[in-house]
Structures are given as structure tokens and as C-alpha cells.
Write a structure and sequence with these properties.
Elements lengths: L2 H13 L3 H9 L3 H23 L2 H18 L9 H27 L6 H8 L7 H7 L2 H12 L4 H8 L3 H18 L4
Helix pairs in contact: 2-3, 3-4, 3-5, 4-5, 8-10, 9-10
């Protein structure tokens, strides 16, 4: 059977099964099931990675790392919560960890404050820039906390654990992000 035929057969094989059956197949080492799970969640994972990293290349790398770790650690998923909820937490944790590892390299390669893309964005009129563009401009820690709290719905206590910062620091970073966004958007 051709590769395309295998993919079509695999998709048919799992089309009628529940998500938990698919996950159990992945836990058993079924690569076709894993591919199906990947296809089902890649957009969601990449979107969260992008909101956390504010960089397409880093988001792609972080999303790849999420799926590598997912293959290795899917056995940890026991079905106590929705898989999408579990995957969301895993994605957040892996992306934050990935950012910590990349920080030194990134700051050696470029100074974010002097980035032409950031300066160009600052010169644009607020009517042509959407909220995502403003979020990208936030300093890393403020952006992480803002995305996790305001967009993803995590509590400051959870964010503090995920980012290894004090709860008060999480609240301060969120306040800083809100102030910057309001200033940039002309809502002072």
C-alpha cells in the first residue's frame, strides 16, 4: 500500500474512535495515531506557543518540542481531565521552559528594544495595529503573564509556579502589561 494509502487508512481507522481510544493507541506506540493527534492539535499548540513567544520561528520550535515531549510523555495522561486541557498545560510549561533555554542565545543575537520590527510597529498608527501586535511588543515576562492570565485564564498562583516567580511578581507583571497596552492603544 502506498504512503498516501496508509495515511488514508489510518485516518479512517481512527475516524470512528473516541479521542481516548486514539490517545491509548498513541500510548501503545501507534505512530499513525500519533500523527492523527498531531494533525488534530498542531494549530492549537502553535497558537499558544506563538502567543507566549511572540516569534514565529520560536513558536515553531517550541511547538515541535511540545510534540516531541508529547510522544515521550503521553503515558502520563490518565484521562482525569480533557486531553485538550492537559495538552494546554503541557504546552505552556514546555514553551516557558523552552524560552528560558533560548533567552541567553536570543539576547546575544539581538536586542529586542532595538529591533527594527519593534520600532516599525511603534511608528504605525494604532488604528492599523491589532491587539496581537501590541502583545508581541510587551517585555517577555509581562507578555508571558498577560497571555497566561488574561487570554489563557490561569490564576496568578498557577502562573507563579509555571514561570518560577512570586505571585506578587506575576500580579505586578500583569499590571505592567495592562498599563503598557493601554498606553500604546491610547487608553491612558
Amino acid at each position: 500500500m502506498s504512503t498516501l494509502g496508509n495515511v488514508v487508512a489510518a485516518e479512517h481507522k481512527f475516524a470512528s474512535k473516541s479521542e481516548m481510544d486514539l490517545i491509548k493507541a498513541v500510548q501503545g506506540g501507534d505512530k499513525q495515531a500519533y500523527h492523527k493527534l498531531y494533525q488534530q492539535y498542531i494549530a492549537q499548540v502553535y497558537g499558544l506557543c506563538y502567543r507566549l513567544t511572540a516569534d514565529k520561528s520560536l513558536a515553531e520550535d517550541a511547538a515541535q518540542e511540545v510534540f516531541i515531549q508529547l510522544w515521550r510523555k503521553i503515558g502520563n495522561y490518565q484521562g482525569d481531565s480533557k486531553f485538550s486541557t492537559w495538552l494546554h498545560t503541557v504546552t505552556s510549561n514546555i514553551t516557558i521552559s523552552y524560552l528560558r533555554k533560548q533567552r541567553g542565545w536570543l539576547y546575544r543575537m539581538m536586542n529586542f528594544e532595538d529591533s527594527p520590527a519593534i520600532n516599525e510597529l511603534a511608528e504605525e498608527s494604532s488604528s492599523t495595529v491589532d491587539i496581537e501586535s501590541y502583545i508581541v511588543r510587551l517585555p517577555e515576562r509581562a507578555r508571558l503573564v498577560f497571555v497566561l492570565h488574561a487570554i489563557e485564564g490561569y490564576r496568578h498562583e498557577e502562573i507563579a509556579i509555571m514561570t518560577n516567580m512570586a505571585v506578587g511578581s506575576s500580579k505586578a507583571q500583569f499590571h505592567r502589561a495592562k498599563q503598557l497596552l493601554q498606553e500604546w492603544m491610547g487608553y491612558e
